[in-house]
């Protein structure tokens, strides 16, 4: 977890200072340093479903609505740690459940989070709250990890 | 308290606090049997901030998780500290007002507020009169009430087994400025009158529950339980019934982490486990939703 130590602090700080306006990409992760060693960190972009007459690949169900999608990929030092983060961050229900939906999955050592929302303000609030919680989980792992062997 | 600010505070201090607790106890993670945390009720963001840490350490250390009901935390700590065996419980705080009695594996709610908690009523009254929050509005109301001389008539709102406080609050918000301006009474008189009225209501519904249950013990828990006048009035009622009153001091009346650990330990001993999938926090969590398998 030593590599994650510098990485976690940096990644959390980096994630928070990233510009979120206009759907810029955001990357974060406990293992930013590890990711740098192992490969490039993944940067993902928010996609806006365009209105009428827009992109054929848009995900809007009704022409009048704009469905915002935001995807975050968080690398961890191991699949177990990604699973632990998933276990910690999934159980609490989203406050505006109807308006904002998010889905967490683990793929290898990566925690993938996918948001869908019609209201961009609520989406932004949800992302900010999630990042605060994610940062706390990562700091907890730094202080009290690594996980004991099963 | 604003939920966002409170959550931010918890996130900032929790890890140091956890480390400090382990160090002070001279324990390591291996010595820990289980992780108890507050599942609810309460404010969402602060509850969630603590819950994620509980889930994370439970998984890191591979220990069982116990989601505890906050109200039951108060009851179990009250029982432990006072030695009361099967009391009728008056749980009174800024967020809750309930009369609870144990029956057949549930903490049954016999009576409660139908609107705001008594502590909330006292705090908002303090704000109207611009009473200081240091150390707490309730404490300052209690001190001022001792200097009150005149009993001002206030609405008395017991509704069967339940109580209501928002009416009294609106009345006093309305009347206070007028009465103070005309010199009809002093702020101390209002503090005195409010306490006498709301505490008498609480004593009445507690007594009603004790009569229903044939109970010989009463226990006061929650922050408002620190109030000595409330304890005095409850004691008078208990003596009249030949019952015993149990109360704790401010270390254990007011919300504390140890009470969650105590209830968690009882649950753990009785075989309860909270699976991760079930561990989500909940702002509304009724005291009688929990199966109290650790008591007969």
From TrEMBL, chain B:
InterPro entries: ATPase_NBD, Gcp-like_dom, KAE1/TsaD, Kae1_archaea_euk, Peptidase_M22_CS. GO terms for biological process: tRNA threonylcarbamoyladenosine modification. PROSITE patterns: GLYCOPROTEASE. Residues 2-261 form the Gcp-like domain. It is found in: Cytoplasm; Nucleus. Pfam families: TsaD. GO terms for molecular function: metal ion binding; tRNA N(6)-L-threonylcarbamoyladenine synthase activity. GO terms for cellular component: cytoplasm; EKC/KEOPS complex; nucleus. It catalyses: L-threonylcarbamoyladenylate + adenosine(37) in tRNA = N(6)-L-threonylcarbamoyladenosine(37) in tRNA + AMP + H(+). The keyword Protein transport does not apply. Its EC number is 2.3.1.234. Its main location: cytoplasm. Keywords: Acyltransferase, Cytoplasm, Metal-binding, Transferase, tRNA processing. HAMAP family: Kae1. NCBIfam families: arch_KAE1 (TIGR03722), gcp_kae1 (TIGR00329). This is N(6)-L-threonylcarbamoyladenine synthase. It comes from Diceros bicornis minor.
């Amino acid at each position: 977890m030593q590599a994650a130590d510098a990485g976690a602090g940096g990644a959390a700080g980096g994630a928070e200072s990233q510009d979120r306006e206009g759907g810029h990409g955001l990357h974060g992760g406990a293992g930013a340093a590890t990711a740098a060693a192992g490969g490039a960190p993944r940067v993902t972009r928010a996609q806006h479903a365009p209105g009428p007459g827009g992109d054929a690949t848009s995900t809007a169900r009704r022409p009048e609505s704009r469905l915002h999608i935001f995807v975050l990929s968080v690398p961890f030092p191991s699949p177990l740690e990604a699973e632990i983060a998933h276990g910690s961050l999934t159980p609490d229900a989203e406050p505006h459940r109807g308006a904002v939906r998010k889905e967490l999955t683990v793929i290898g050592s990566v925690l993938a989070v996918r948001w869908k929302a019609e209201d961009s303000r609520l989406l932004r609030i949800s992302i900010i709250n999630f990042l605060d919680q994610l940062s706390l989980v990562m700091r907890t792992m730094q202080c009290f990890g690594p996980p004991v062997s099963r | 308290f604003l939920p966002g600010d409170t959550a931010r505070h918890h996130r900032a201090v929790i890890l140091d606090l956890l480390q400090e607790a382990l160090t002070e106890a001279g324990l390591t993670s291996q010595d820990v049997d289980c992780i108890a945390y507050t599942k609810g009720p309460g404010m969402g963001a602060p509850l969630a901030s603590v819950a994620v840490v509980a889930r994370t350490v439970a998984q890191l250390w591979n220990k069982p998780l116990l989601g505890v009901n906050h109200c039951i935390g108060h009851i179990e700590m009250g029982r432990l500290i006072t030695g009361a065996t099967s009391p009728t419980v008056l749980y009174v705080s800024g967020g809750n007002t309930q009369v609870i009695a144990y029956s057949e594996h549930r903490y049954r709610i016999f009576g409660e507020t139908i609107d705001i908690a008594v502590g909330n009523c006292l705090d908002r009254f303090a704000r109207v009169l611009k009473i200081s929050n240091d150390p707490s509005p309730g404490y300052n109301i209690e001190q001022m009430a001792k200097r009150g001389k005149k009993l001002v008539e206030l609405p008395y709102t017991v509704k069967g087994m339940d109580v209501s406080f928002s009416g009294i609050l609106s009345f006093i918000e309305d009347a206070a400025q007028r009465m103070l301006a005309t010199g009809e009474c002093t702020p101390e008189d209002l503090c005195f009158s409010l306490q006498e009225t709301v505490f008498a209501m609480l004593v009445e519904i507690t007594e009603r529950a004790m009569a229903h249950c044939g109970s010989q013990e009463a226990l006061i828990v929650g922050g408002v339980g620190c109030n000595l006048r409330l304890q005095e009035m409850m004691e008078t009622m208990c003596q009249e019934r030949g019952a015993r009153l149990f109360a704790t001091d401010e270390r254990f009346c007011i919300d504390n982490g140890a009470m969650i650990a105590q209830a968690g330990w009882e649950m753990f001993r009785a075989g309860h486990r909270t699976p991760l999938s079930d561990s989500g926090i909940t702002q509304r969590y009724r005291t009688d939703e929990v199966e109290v398998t650790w008591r007969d």
